[in-house]
Amino acid sequence: MSVEQHGLYIAGEEVAAGSGRTFLSTNPATGEAWASFAEADTADVERAVAAADAAFHGAAWRALSPTKRGRLLMRLAELILANAEELAAVEVRENGKLYKEMLAQLKVIPEWLYYYGGLADKVEGRVIPLDRQSILNYTVREPFGVVGIITPWNSPSLLTWMSAAPALAAGNAVVIKPSEVTSGSVLATMRLVEQAGFPPGIVNVVTGAREAGEAIAACPGIAKVAFTGGAAAGKAIAATVGARLGHVTLELGGKSANIVFADANLDAAEAGILAGIFAAGGQTCIAGSRAFVERPVYDELVARLVRRAGSIVLGDPMDPATQMGPAATPAQLEKIAAMVEDARDAGATVLAGGRKAVVPSLPNGLFYEPTVLAELTNDSRVAQEEIFGPVLAVMPFEGEEEAVALANASRYGLAAGVWTQDVKRAHRMARRLEAGTVWINLYRAITFNSPFGGYKESGSGRLNGIEGIDAFLQTKSVWVELGDEIQDPFVLKL
Questions:
Q1: Which of 208, 362, 420, 425 has its CB surrounded by the most CB atoms within 10 Å?
Q2: CA distance 412 to 455
Q3: Cα separation of 441 and 392, whole Å?
Q4: pLDDT at position 144, please?
Q5: Is 251 considered catalytic here?
Q6: CA–CA distance from 416 to each of 243, 309, 320, 395 (Å)?
Q7: Those residues with Cβ within 8 angstroms of residue 78's Cβ, 6 or more apart along the chain or in another chain
Q8: pLDDT score recorded for residue 489
Q9: How many angstroms from the chain centroid is the CA of residue 67?
Q10: In CATH terms, is domain 4-252+458-478 a member of 3.40.605.10?
């Protein structure tokens, strides 16, 4: 199999890294290297930031009205939709997630671009009412300038555009650093950015590992950083950006709870829990990795989950019959295995899975069995740390008070699910759960016009919705004296 060669994308051109260094991307389903990417260092990041800054201040971008800027995003939406199948195949090759899931994500990305394209010319200021009638005070909303966007490998294109679409709609230029695991799909999208008509330099991509991400966080030419990824990396980025008084939005990890009450529709709860933890192989920040089940239905629902987990089909992510693909990287597979072993050593019972899996047609694939753990406590490592794999911890509870206490006993607060047919209880739970998103009788639903983000260590700021574009704007207050009277504090008035 031939290995593709890819450079950085700076000022509308594909260029080599200054150091000449490269790194390989490996297909996690086959174990084969399929592409080589330029490895950016600090100098490359500074080069991309300089290009973005020049484009931001350039005549081509400044001459675009907000309406025309929005039209570019809409044109890009059409191009992504037309190329969705090709882009989805690249993502599968990179992270091993199911083709049908990646294709569904590529096909929904245009909704974000249409939405923010439509919002571009609806960014408005306000007139402030003052006591002195001779003064006009108004506000304007303005872009930051250059925005750095750092994204993870689990949903590379969707998560990139969840930040890039509002940033561009607001009038910023962007420098994107995708995960080193999934650089190909983001670079492929950039060719479409050029076709859509964006001025060169407004969108740039630097591929690489930790050095490139740290350089973006530290670069004084980047006014704001939007980061999606793990909590530890998010803390480090926030500290670096904060040290130079920059701005940051963080969408971080989760240890989300799915809470099932005895009156719930168990068929729906079963499907929701399975989708929440196994549909994406657990490799999603909103994975419902903790299931709390009210005692009267605990045994029945756990038995259902164990039976279904054992029947999930592992295999080639391009095969429509496959229900779960591999882990994205060898390191991630080892982390999953180590966490399950730690839980087993601590006394947890493995009801399903609990081992690396072998798919005969893909002997080098990074597969792990869908796993259900029981007989563990909520303060155990496996119930408190994000695994990012197909591992579900199930625990019983007695009553609403205990359910709330268990769910909130986590340093994370990204999402939660509640399964009940009691409408009053549903809304009480929604108010009391410390999570940025609460789903009632459904799970894992996200859309372009509803804000998304976390409480506690699951992040700060919001993506999506009107809050999403607000995050990439700053407010200026303008004061104008309209009267003729001179306000001189050093002239004595008798």
A1: 208
A2: 7
A3: 19
A4: 98
A5: yes
A6: 33, 21, 29, 15
A7: 110
A8: 86
A9: 27
A10: yes
Question: Is the Cβ–Cβ distance between 117 and 191 less than 8 Å?
Answer: no
Q: Is this prediction's pTM over 0.90? A: yes
Q: Which residues contact 455 (CB under 8 A, 6 or more apart)?
A: 413, 414, 434, 435, 436
Other CB atoms closer than 10 Å to residue 471's CB: what's the count?
25
Calculate the average pLDDT of the chain: 96
Catalytically annotated residue among 94, 285, 369, 457: 285
Q: Which residue ranges make up each domain of the chain? A: 4-252+458-478, 257-440
| pLDDT(493) > 80 | no
Q: What angle do CA 467, 224, 228 make, to 5 degrees?
A: 70
pLDDT in tens, 370-398: 999 999 999 999 999 999 999 999 999 99
| Strand-by-strand arrangement of the 33-38 sheet | 4-6, 33-38, 22-26
DSSP 64-84: S-HHHHHHHHHHHHHHHHHTH
Determine the Cα–Cα distance for residues 113 and 101; give it in Å rounded to an integer. 19
- At 117, the amino acid letter reads G
Look up 285 and say whether it is catalytic: yes
Longest dimension (CA), the chain: 97
d(CA 159, CA 334): 25
**From 46, 91, 251, 294, the catalytic residue:** 251
> Topology of domain 257-440, per CATH?
Aldehyde Dehydrogenase; Chain A, domain 2 (3.40.309)
* Residue 107 structure tokens: 């096909």
Beta carbons of 254 and 286 less than 8 angstroms apart? yes
What is the reported pLDDT for 2?
83
Position of tokens 């999603």? 284
For residues 413-432, give the mean pLDDT: 98
Strand pairing class (13-15; 8-10): antiparallel
Query: Does the pLDDT at position 242 exceed 70?
Result: yes
| pLDDT at 494 exceeding the cut of 80 | no
pLDDT for the residue numbered 488: 87
Q: What is the pLDDT of residue 491?
A: 86
Both tokens of 421, joined, read 């047919």
CA–CA separation, 303 vs 199, rounded Å? 57
Sheet containing 247-251, strands listed edge to edge, beginning at the edge strand earlier in sequence: 13-15, 8-10, 203-205, 173-177, 146-150, 224-228, 247-251, 459-460
Using an 8 Å Cβ cutoff, are 113 and 448 in contact? no
Measured N-to-C along each axis, helices 99-119 and 84-95 cross at an angle, to the nearest 10 degrees, of 120
Measured between alpha carbons, how far is 185 from 174 in angstroms, rounded to an integer?
17
Which amino acid, residue 292? F
19-49: b (≥16 Cβ within 10 Å) or e: eeebbebbbbbbeeebbbbbbbbeebbbbbb
Strand order in the sheet with 415-419: 349-352, 371-374, 391-397, 290-294, 257-260, 415-419, 437-440
